[in-house]
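To whoever picks this up:

The nightly regression suite flagged Branched-chain amino acid ABC transporter permease as changed. Nothing in the input moved, so I suspect the structure step. Input below, exactly as stored in the fixture:
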Amino acid sequence: MIFLQIFINGIILGGIYLLISIGLSFTYALLRFPNFSHAELITIGAYTSLILCMLNLDFKLTLAASFATSAITALLIHILAFNPMIKLGMGMVELMIVSIGIGIIIRHVIQEIWGAKIYFLKIVRQIYELNGIRIADSEILILIIAFSSALFLHLLLTKTKIGIALRASIENTNLALSLGVNID
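Regenerated output under the current build:
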């Protein structure tokens, strides 16, 4: 039974890693540089969850707000920092250095606000148990979100015109431009 519980916990953690890796690999594929501030963007989402859980908001709403906060922050960073640099013709090294700097800034702002203390989310959750295997409703929700996000992204990239155009621009920018695909 312990092996099966460890396996279930590994699947749940794998779902979280799946979401993180989708964001990181998608960013790399689109922007052509590794965004080293990706972990800090996830941290912004985590602290959003912490704040909203302290306000006793519903976990599903908290989760949605956390994703939205991270996504909006990433979009703002792209619009204000990365996009102007890309338009100026900056290379991958310069963009990586800026992403490291942005990560350091975000990390220190969070540390100034919250300190270096470790916080834990207090989530009211329903635990389901079957033959000694335990899983919480929040963990089921994480699995549903992770795997449905992966499936949605796969279908988007393989079955829609915008997804196929996106993949074309990732694979061969010049060919995509010649076919009339707007790569900006």
